Amino acid sequence: MKKRTLISLLCAGALTVGTIAGTSAFASADDTEAEAKSEGFTLLAAEEEESEEEESEEEEIVLGEDLSGVAGVAAKVMPAVVSITNKSVTEVQDMFGMYDMFGWPYGYGDDSGRGNSRTYESVSAGSGIIIGQSDTELLICTNYHVVEDATELSVGFVDDEVAPAVVKGEDSSNDLAVVAVSLDDIKDETLDQISVAEIGNSDKLVIGQQVVAIGNALGYGQSVTTGIVSALNRTIDLDGYNAALIQTDAAINPGNSGGALLDMDGHVIGINSAKAASNGVEGMGYAIPISYAEPILEDLMNRKTRTEKVAEEDSSYMGIYGQDVSSEMNRLYGIPQGIYITDVEEGSPAAEAGLKKGDVIVKFDGSSVTSMQLLKNMLSYYAAGEEVTITISQQADGEYTEKKVDMTLGRLSDYVDTEDYNE
User: Fold this and answer.
1) β-strand 117-133 against 81-93: which pairing, if any?
2) Between residues 108 and 188, which one has the greater pLDDT?
3) What distance in Å separates the CA atoms of residue 254 and residue 206, rounded to the nearest whole number?
4) What is the DSSP letter of 100?
5) Active-site option among 149, 175, 265, 365
6) Which entry of 202, 223, 257, 393 is annotated as an active-site residue?
7) Eight-state DSSP code of residue 409
8) pLDDT number for residue 221
9) Can you spell out the DSSP letters for 335-355?
């Protein structure tokens, strides 16, 4: 939990228990399956109601099992909401090494020369929403901070069955991520009980409208809370980025991050993200508007899922030296969060791609990069010779602007003595 300006914002998924891409448009519920096969994944949009009269007459049936109101929403959407458990390793740098830690080397992932640091393992709980299914995998959206730095992910379904998961794509700048679960790892009985959530339209929300939040509050399992839309387009600072969010008084607690904020038709209108916590502050939770998140999630959904690391002889190489840019450094010095390049090896793939000292790598192959360790993990799934797009932020006239460059990854053994390197 990090202190914020004026009040403290608790990421609702930061409950710590211990130490490809395809361009697609949105589809209606009727044609989603056909378009998903031909053009890539799309989110399942809710069908427009034909008339207010029909809606009121069929409401109890639509919401299922003769239930209406909050109970009906819960019965309809619970099968589409999951719990997510993240095991991660966190590295803490020695504060006294802050200014000389900009020079340690990194190519494939050399961890030498870091100076004083220590690592610890932690386990955190969050939530997710099932937003797609292909012939091979189930796709779940969540917050980036729920899966950040994950070394092991697992997903729990409505019937309490648990399956391993991997991050398919992530966008830290918008606190969004998509997680994939192989259908081979899900029991048939579980597949019969789960469902894909329907996406609503957050642009049509009005203040005072009733909403329902479902998520893995406090890591105890799925729970339901209700409230109203308290405010729209609330701009707050979340770990270094500003976001215009939906404010609600529905209880959102640690573990709720990535869960669903729903309208009374059971349509997802927000992704729960944070709550305000300070003396005298009650009933201030925040969610990412789904209409804003839709195109980002569809891009992440359509990326290639990488589950197997490449063979040692195919290990890839970039040829940069760099240092993590923390959220504190971002606030103090205005450097974008990512990897600050301190040097580029002459003749390396990075040099040939035009990367230079002072550039900040913010995305690798479309996914956000927030640490050297994360980039190292990503590279282990990419073979030498693959072409990737690197998003860098460059400074000019005191301001940083983003730029995309293509890079063909080199072969580690062509640049490094792998026997000495692996010792």
Assistant:
1) antiparallel
2) 188
3) 26
4) T
5) 175
6) 257
7) P
8) 85
9) PPSEEEEEEE-TTSHHHHHT-
Mark whether 175 is an active-site residue: yes
* Structure tokens, 161: 């069955």
Q: How confident is the model at residue 114 (pLDDT cuts 50, 70, 90)?
A: very low
**Token pair for residue 8?**
């403290």
Sole residue written with tokens 């010779």: 385
CATH code 2.30.42.10 for 312-422: yes
Structure tokens that stand for 378 in this block: 């990503």
Q: What is the mean pLDDT of residues 359-367?
A: 90
CATH code assigned to 1-94+118-304 = 2.40.10.120
> Which of 189-193, 330-334, 356-360 is predicted with the least confidence, judged by mean pLDDT?
330-334
pTM score: 0.71
- Sequence-distant (6+) residues with CB within 8 A of 6 are 278
Q: Specify the pLDDT at position 194.
A: 96
Quick check: 290 pLDDT over 60?
Answer: yes
Q: Which of 83, 124, 127, 145 is catalytic?
A: 145
Question: Positive or negative CA dihedral for 75, 299, 290, 200?
Answer: negative
Averaged over 123-138, what is the pLDDT? 92
* Residue 175 one-letter amino acid: D
Tokens representing 404 are 């995309």
Domain layout of the chain by residue ranges: 1-94+118-304, 312-422
- Which residues on neighbouring strands pair with residue 225, listed in sequence order? 213
Task: Specify the pLDDT at position 244.
Answer: 87
Active site residue 145: yes
Q: DSSP class of residue 2?
A: B
Residue 208: pLDDT band (50, 70, 90) is very high
Contact between 339 and 109 (Cβ < 8 Å): no
